[in-house]
Amino acid sequence: MVDKHLSHYHITAELGRGGMGIVYLATDTKLDRQVAIKVLPASALTSESDRARFYREAKAAASLTHPHIAIIHGVDEAVPEGASSEELRPFIAMEYVDGETLEALIEKGPFKVTDAVRIASEVASALQTAHEAEVVHRDIKSANVILSKKGVAKVLDFGLAQTAASTKLTRMGATLGTASFMSPEQARGEQVDHRTDIFSLGVILYHMVAGRLPFGAEYEQAVIYSILNEDPEPLTALRTGVPMELERIVGKALAKDRELRYQNAADLIVDLKALALTETASQTSGRPTPLTSAEAAATAGVATAGAAAAGVLPLPVLLLPLRSMRRKHSGHFL
Ligand SMILES: Nc1ncnc2c1ncn2[C@@H]1O[C@H](COP(=O)(O)OP(=O)(O)O)[C@@H](O)[C@H]1O
Ligand SMILES: [Mg+2]
């Protein structure tokens, strides 16, 4: 389909293939800007209920505005240039994120703990906004988070998992990778709520720090067995320099019983940010150069960061140094 038109989009390159379809880089010829277009197979929406669900889900996802969620520009169905009229293809036009997926980056090696914690906080903040709007992602995985060239995380594919499930597209293109991020309740085929996304984010965080999946196995059934019954190998056993607090956070996100998990993304963010403060402070301590006022504030936060884990951190201490920290990390990331 490269170099063809689909509606008013001129497709210029293939970006990747996934469970639901092919993603292309395209130019929106009306607005003259680059977009990513996910084109589904012509057979994706065979029934009216599938079609209705596709538009309903896309509408919910398109309502989300957040710096760490890839924007949905539009959904439609069109016949690709040169194809027969039966070839009506549903597609989603979305923000093109120039970068690499976490999955591709992890293949090159594990992340620095500070970067992993920052990225997990960004994804958690995207989840918080979505969950408040009652949108559950259901397919949070390392391949659905792109890190832009500036080091900013963007979550992809909000609102698509339901369509995928209902149209059986997920089964068609199911990969081992996808099962690896499922919560136990999702793996059992039960009703899920927003806490399934928190579990999957726990898997991403583990994946970034360990450089491998917590519930990895050769066969999908073995992965699912592991998700349901096994505890992942402790991060501290896999790598030196992993803070005990990170181990605790990952363990709580990966609790098999969702009642014992973080109950919402906001609570997870508080713990991740408190940990980020201690990590930054321990890295900056002992530096010969004088601290900037923001760094001094970050260091001052250390004394109370332990208390943060106990949930008694005064909010201003937590919030003040974070802005400067985020800039600092995105600056030297990659
Ligand atoms: N908005 C986007 N911007 C840039 N690249 C994208 C975008 N969406 C998807 N991609 C690329 O296309 C690949 C396939 O995407 P997708 O079909 O969603 O796969 P999956 O089913 O694994 O989530 C991704 O791994 C990514 O490299
Ligand atoms: Mg995807």
Describe the structure.
- By secondary structure, the protein is an alpha+beta fold.
- The protein has 2 domains: 5-95, Phosphorylase Kinase, domain 1 (2-Layer Sandwich), CATH 3.30.200.20; 99-306, Transferase(Phosphotransferase), domain 1, CATH 1.10.510.10.
- The chain contains 16 helices and 9 strands.
- The chain has helices at 48-62, 102-107, 113-132, 161-166, 169-172, 176-179, 184-187, 195-210, 220-229, 235-238, 244-253, 265-284, 293-300, 302-309, 315-319, 322-332; strands spanning 5-6, 9-17, 22-28, 33-39, 72-78, 89-95, 99-101, 145-148, 153-155.
- The strands form 2 sheets. A 6-stranded antiparallel β-sheet has the order 1-2-3-4-6-5, covered by helices on one side. Strands 7-8-9 form a 3-stranded antiparallel β-sheet.
- Helix 3 (113-132) packs antiparallel against helix 8 (195-210).
Kindly provide the radius of gyration, computed on alpha-carbon positions and rounded to a whole number of angstroms: 21 Å
Multimer state: single chain
Q: What is the CATH H-level superfamily of the largest domain?
A: Transferase(Phosphotransferase) domain 1
Sheet-strand content, in percent, reads 5-15%
Annotated CATH architecture of the largest domain: Orthogonal Bundle
Number of strands: 9
- SSE string, helix = H, strand = E? EEEEHEEEHHEEHHHHHHHHHHHHH
Per DSSP, the total helix count is 16
* Small molecules bound in the structure, each named once: adenosine-5'-diphosphate, magnesium ion
Instruction: Give the CATH topology of the largest domain.
Output: Transferase(Phosphotransferase), domain 1
Give the termini distance in whole angstroms.
33 Å
| Largest β-sheet summary | 6 strands, antiparallel
